[in-house]
Amino acid sequence: MNATSTPIATDYAAVLEPLLAVVDAVPASGWDAATPCEDWTARGVVTHLVDTQREFLTGRGVDLGPAPDVAADPAAALRAHAGRVLAAVSDPAVADEPYDGFFGPTTVGETLAQFYVWDMVVHRWDLARATGQDAGLAGPSSTASSPAPAAGVTPSTWRASAAPPSRCPPTPAGRSGCSPCSAGRPDFPRGRVARRRAHQ
Questions:
Q1: How confident is the model at residue 178 (pLDDT cuts 50, 70, 90)?
Q2: pTM for the complete prediction?
Q3: 7-198 is classed CATH 1.10.10
Q4: What is the structure's pLDDT at 138?
Q5: Distance in angstroms (rounded) separating the CA atoms of residues 26 and 119
C-alpha cells in the first residue's frame, strides 16, 4: 500500500488492516455464509463495501480504474480496491476536495471518514460473525479499544456523537441488506474518527 499522507488515508488504513485480516481468514466455502445483514452473504458484504465506496469516489471524479471481480475472489478484490482508494486519498488534492453534500459543505475525506470508514468497522463484525471469527473488537462492557486506532467507532457512539441513524452509507439500488445503523451489534469505545467528528 502507498504511504499515507492525509488524515483520511491514515484512518482508512487503520481500519482496513483488521478488516483484511478477517477477510483473508474466510475459507473458500465461507463466502456463501449468511451474515447478520438480511439477504447478504459474506461475499455480498464485500460487494457492498466495494460498490458503495466506488460509487461515492467515482461520483466525485476519482479514477479507481476498472471494478475488481468480487464474485471470483472477494479477498483479492477488496485488497485491490482498497489499494486504489488509499492511493487516491493519500493525495491532499483528492482528500480535501470540497463539495456540497446532502448535509451541507464537506470534503471527500470527511465524507469517507464519517460514513465509509465506519461502514468498514461495522461490516468487519458482520463478516467475522458469519465466518466464526473474532472481529478483534471489544465487548459491550469493556473499556479496551480495538486494535486499530480508528476502529473504536461504534453503533451507539456514532449515533450519539457523529450523526443521526439516517445518515448511513447507501445500499445500492435493488439490493436489500443491513444498515450500519442497525441494532444488534456490540458497543465499543470511541476511536479517533468519532472523536474528530464530534469536536468539529
A1: low
A2: 0.73
A3: no
A4: 58
A5: 19
